[in-house]
Design goal:
Number of domains: 1
Number of helices: 7
Oligomer: single chain
CATH topology: Rossmann fold
CATH architecture: 3-Layer(aba) Sandwich
CATH class: Alpha Beta
Radius of gyration: 17 Å
């Protein structure tokens, strides 16, 4: 099975460096254009199935991809971004100004740094683990599976697949409308592509 992990296109909150988490924000015009460029690229992958987070930014991205690839996205709550509690809606600058100690810990800690009223880390891991288990049960080896989700969720998923410790902060960054490919057909997961955005650049 081959996973093609896709981060949603750009939102206004991404531009403003505003923390989104579970907050439901739509794509902006740039994000819609990015999704169309993703679709033209992914049609070549001959996806068998397309899953997506139900949050608008991911759902809209998946719908545009699905229209081009002839697939109806399957929405799954387990693919939502990590809930970031009281930090959602704040820009990085606002967070640093209002909660300097929390901001410092959140930015600089090498291990998970809990935020006020955030989704517990174990809950995030459990829902992604359950999604992966269902994926293996539903799809035969060799399937091409597209998954449209969020930066934090994709990072957690990749970290779980390669065996990072639960409490370790993800070392990965995923740009808007990026593509990451993980091959699960062998004895161990292999990352074939990481945070690729070549399709976004004019030739």
């Amino acid at each position: 099975m081959h996973l093609i992990l896709i981060r949603h296109g750009e939102t206004d909150w991404n531009n403003e460096r505003r923390i989104q988490g579970h907050t439901d924000t739509p794509l902006n015009l740039c994000g819609i254009e990015q999704a169309h460029k993703l679709a033209f690229r992914l049609v070549e992958e001959k996806l068998d199935t397309l899953y997506a987070s139900p949050l608008s930014r991911a759902r809209m991205t998946a719908e545009i991809i699905g229209q081009k690839c002839g697939l109806v996205p399957i929405l799954d709550e387990r693919l939502k971004e990590k809930g970031l509690g009281d930090f959602e809606g704040l820009t990085a600058e606002e967070l640093q100004e209002r909660h300097p100690e929390l901001y410092h810990g959140w930015v600089n800690s090498k291990e998970h740094f809990p935020l006020p009223n955030e989704e517990p880390l174990i809950a995030l891991h459990e829902r992604i683990q359950a999604f992966l288990a269902d994926l293996h049960a539903a799809h035969p080896n060799g399937s091409q599976i597209g998954i449209v989700s969020h930066g934090g969720t994709v990072g957690t998923l990749v970290g779980m697949l390669i065996g990072l410790e639960l409490n370790r902060r993800s070392p990965f960054w995923f740009d808007n409308a990026s593509v990451t490919q993980v091959d699960l057909s062998g004895s161990r997961p292999r990352i074939r592509l990481l945070n690729d955005t070549c399709h976004l650049h004019d030739k």
